[in-house]
Design a protein that fits this description.
The chain is mainly alpha-helical and 246 residues long. It has eight helices and two strands. It has two domains: 84 residues, no CATH class; 133 residues, no CATH class. The chain is rod-shaped.
């Protein structure tokens, strides 16, 4: 495409030079022409105009072509700049949206509260955030609730709050996957989400995957979910697929 444009430009420049030379040379050659013959067809001025006008029109056409070509190139460059700016703005907007969702998730985790009872005493301490979630999951077996009974579990505020947090996390991962943002930004927020979830809701066995630790085997369903209700544990396993680098 570039070679074609250069070839066209060379042709136009050549025509322009030829036209200019003819415009200068032809009037100078008029005294050498048989003016008597020209008088038979009209005044000398008409003859000169008849010779010069086509040449002038060629020159005008060439100049017009060059001007239009330059305008088209300028418009193309301007459009490319506009497209680049729009793309950059969309990426910035996408990163901002993902960050706002992550902040929303973080606030939900930090606002989680639980009244933790000290073992062997009557003391009660209200804990918040990650620690509250850990304490709630550790104590859920002592609440006389069947861990496999979803109906009983959903009657607990803590269970509903944790499931809500996990739904928010799922939406964020989907948003990251479909967002038109830089790949490095995607990987950054995936790592950030993994860290936040691992240290707040996921079992301790996920803190070091290389240790190959497993939760206690459940005697009812024969799955390694420990004291985690399957309703929560299964959703955690679904979220883990997003931890892989995309």
């Amino acid at each position: 495409m570039k070679l074609k444009n250069n070839s066209e430009s060379n042709i136009v420049i050549s025509l322009l030079i030829i036209g200019i030379l003819l415009t200068i040379i032809v009037p100078l050659m008029l005294p050498l022409l048989p003016l008597g013959h020209l008088k038979e067809y009209g005044p000398v001025g008409d003859a000169f105009g008849g010779v010069a006008n086509p040449i002038a029109q060629i020159v005008g056409f060439v100049l017009l072509y060059r001007a239009l070509r330059a305008q088209i190139n300028a418009n193309s460059i301007l459009q490319m700049q506009i497209n680049d700016e729009n793309s950059k703005e969309m990426q910035e907007r996408g990163v901002k949206h993902v960050h706002e969702l992550y902040t929303f998730l973080e606030n939900n985790i930090n606002s989680f509260s639980y009244e933790n009872k000290f073992e062997g005493t009557n003391g009660i301490q209200v804990v918040h955030g990650r620690r509250a979630i850990r304490c709630f999951i550790d104590d859920i077996e002592d609440m006389n609730i069947d861990l496999h009974n979803a109906e009983q579990l959903l009657q607990q505020d803590g269970v509903r709050e944790i499931l809500s947090i996990l739904r928010i996390a799922e939406n964020i991962f989907d948003r990251i996957g479909h967002a038109d943002i830089n790949e490095n930004d995607k990987l950054f927020y995936i790592d950030l989400m993994k860290h936040e979830l691992t240290f707040s809701i996921f079992p301790y066995t996920d803190l070091d995957e290389s240790a190959n630790l497993k939760l206690e085997l459940c005697g009812d369903c024969h799955k390694f979910h420990g004291n985690y209700p399957p309703l929560i544990f299964d959703k955690l396993q679904q979220l883990k697929r997003h931890f892989q680098k995309q």
